[in-house]
Design brief:
The protein has 259 residues and is of the alpha+beta class. It folds into 2 domains: 102 residues, no CATH class; 139 residues, OB fold (Dihydrolipoamide Acetyltransferase, E2P) (Beta Barrel). It contains 6 helices and 7 strands, in the order E-H-H-E-H-H-H-E-H-E-E-E-E. The longest helix has 21 residues. It starts with a strand and ends in an 11-residue tail after the last strand.
């Protein structure tokens, strides 16, 4: 068996990969894997793969040639070096197979295990100006990460008491993180922050207390409305939302938050 695949097959693989990326872009599931700001680059890549693949597919199959051949080329004589190894093509096919076999879905409660969960604040760095600008905006625009930022930067935590909170996230429970004083009414409303891709995703959570919490399924998306309080948990003050209502909602089109 030849070590290299014919140009037509190589072209087919590249076109298929381009169409696969395009389907993820057009179907909206691309944001489950990478930051939405890279969507344009992925689209450009998809178009490029299709064009290169079509060009390869139109190339005639070259005559057999021994790669170890070191004879000089005569004028007017050339060899086709556009062949690709089967192993390299397999590496391109594998992501498509996995992408088609595994349903596209955002990170949720099952992905929280083993990750550091931000409960009382997040890293600031160069994004602090953006956070401060968002905190000055409408109440409805404030997300879980915005409230954690506000809590972290507040010199007097008690100054945040009774602030109205309205956030969306998925239900997560962890008895150890909830602390010894937790009750059946306590849970976390959580989201993931995404800087580049899911490999660097970082979970953020707000503790919530609601009388109907026991009926909520883990990983269910909910909208939490209530007032912010401050409790001592895990040896430090942490924000907790005394919920007035918790309503099950559909997962947002963009499930991740961005710093």
């Amino acid at each position: 068996m030849s070590r290299t695949a014919p140009p037509a097959f190589s072209g087919l693989v590249l076109v298929s990969l381009g169409l696969f990326l395009y389907s993820r872009w057009s179907g909206g599931s691309l944001v489950y894997y990478i930051n939405q700001r890279f969507a344009g680059l992925i689209l450009a890549t998809a178009v490029g793969l299709v064009l290169v693949g079509l060009r390869l597919a139109r190339q005639p199959r070259a005559h057999g040639h021994d790669p170890s051949c070191n004879h000089s080329h005569e004028p007017g004589h050339s060899h086709d070096h556009s062949h690709h190894g089967w192993g390299a093509l397999l590496l391109l096919v594998l992501p498509m197979v996995l992408g088609l076999a595994v349903p596209a879905r955002p990170l949720g409660a099952s992905a929280m295990a083993g990750r550091e969960i931000h409960l009382g604040g997040v890293g600031l760095g160069s994004t602090s100006v953006a956070f401060e600008r968002r905190l000055r905006g409408p109440l409805a625009d404030k997300t879980i990460v915005d409230w954690l930022y506000a809590f972290q930067t507040a010199e007097d935590k008690q100054s945040l008491l009774d602030e109205e909170v309205d956030v969306v996230g998925f239900v997560y429970r962890d008895a150890q993180l909830l602390g010894q004083d937790a009750t059946a009414d306590d849970f976390f409303v959580s989201r993931f922050i995404l800087s580049c891709c899911v490999a660097d995703a970082s979970p953020v959570s707000l503790m919530v207390r609601w009388q109907g919490a026991a009926k909520l399924e883990s990983d269910a998306w909910v909208r939490v409305k209530g007032r912010l309080t401050v409790v001592d948990r895990l040896g430090r003050p942490l924000p907790l939302v005394e919920a007035s209502s918790v309503v099950t909602v559909t997962a947002p089109t963009q499930p991740y938050l961005y710093p």
